[in-house]
Amino acid sequence: MVVKPTKAQKKIAYDAKLCKLLDNYTQILVVAADNVGSNQLQNIRQGLRGDSVILMGKNTMMKRSIRIHSERTGNETFLNLIPLLVGNVGLIFTKGDLKEVSEVVSKYKVGAPARVGLVAPIDVIVPPGNTGLDPSQTSFFQVLNIPTKINKGTVEIVTPVELIKKGDKVGSSEAALLAKLAIRPFSYGLTVVSVYDNGSVFSPEVLDLTEDDLIGKFAIGISMVASLSLAISYPTIAAAPHMFVNAYKNVLSVAVATQYSFPQADEVKEYLKDPSKFAVAAPAAVSGTAPAAAAAATAKEEKKEEPADESDDDLGLSLFD
């Protein structure tokens, strides 16, 4: 006869298991497990088998084991997990890529009916069309103010109707109607709410950031540093190029307005004295525009060389002569 372990023995075994996982793993996903059944959880375990382990349990037991392990090892970074253990949550210990593990977890979602008193996680919209219900069922639709008509002996919904809004509780009438229409509007599974990585805790949205997102955020930060540096006239690496350009503009303005000059200003002054050089040289400086500029200049010269008193009548010729 197998002797069942006592409550104290179960706590000791759970504590040993959690401490062992904390020793072997540095990456942990904190997941919400609301409305997740045991069969669904088993499927998720199988999908993550290899480099990830799921551990569920009471929050008080997990917090106690984490505190004991932190005191025993002197590693206080594990204490960052304690504030995250709120509600019906579990821990996924992994050595794999956090984003890939999170994507695998999100795949295992199961459709669920709208139960009475349940808080709707999304908006529920009943689509228009034939419901297959007989006319005696119209009372459900009338209570919920859903426009219907009788078509070929069955009830047909005329327009789409927002039956339940996100955050509202499901009423008995809404639940009964959705059940009759065989609509399972909600889907549940493990949802990643926080990420623990080597003592750092951050939101799961960080896992969705791409290299382009990081570059964009870095560029915005550099732009802000440059703007602040220019506003307070404090030189930084980000603001230095702008400061040099602004300084050059100021010196160039002085040189153009006075007799003072320097090599870079001489060229600008020459362009200002003879605008035609500037008109021809500027397009030529841009790659791919030189042929167009040359063609335009040639056409302009030909137009200037045409005699003013010449006309078609003076030629004395005709196409049919």
TrEMBL record:
MF term (GO), any: structural constituent of ribosome
One biological process term in Gene Ontology: ribosomal large subunit assembly
Residues covered by the Large ribosomal subunit protein uL10-like insertion domain: 114-183
CDD domains recorded: Ribosomal_P0_L10e
Similarity-based family: Belongs to the universal ribosomal protein uL10 family.
Subunit structure, as described in the record: P0 forms a pentameric complex by interaction with dimers of P1 and P2.
UniProt keyword terms in alphabetical order: Ribonucleoprotein, Ribosomal protein
Main function: Ribosomal protein P0 is the functional equivalent of E.coli protein L10.
Signal peptide positions on this chain: none
Region: Disordered, residue numbers: 293-321
The protein, known as: 60S acidic ribosomal protein P0
CC terms in the record's Gene Ontology section: cytosolic large ribosomal subunit
The keyword Protein transport is assigned to this record: no
Keyword Transferase tagged: no
Organism (species): Lupinus angustifolius
InterPro entries the UniProt entry points to: Ribosomal_protein_uL10 (IPR050323), Ribosomal_uL10 (IPR001790), Ribosomal_uL10-like_insert (IPR040637), Ribosomal_uL10-like_insert_sf (IPR043164), Ribosomal_uL10-like_sf (IPR043141), uL10_eukaryotes (IPR030670)
Domain of life: Eukaryota
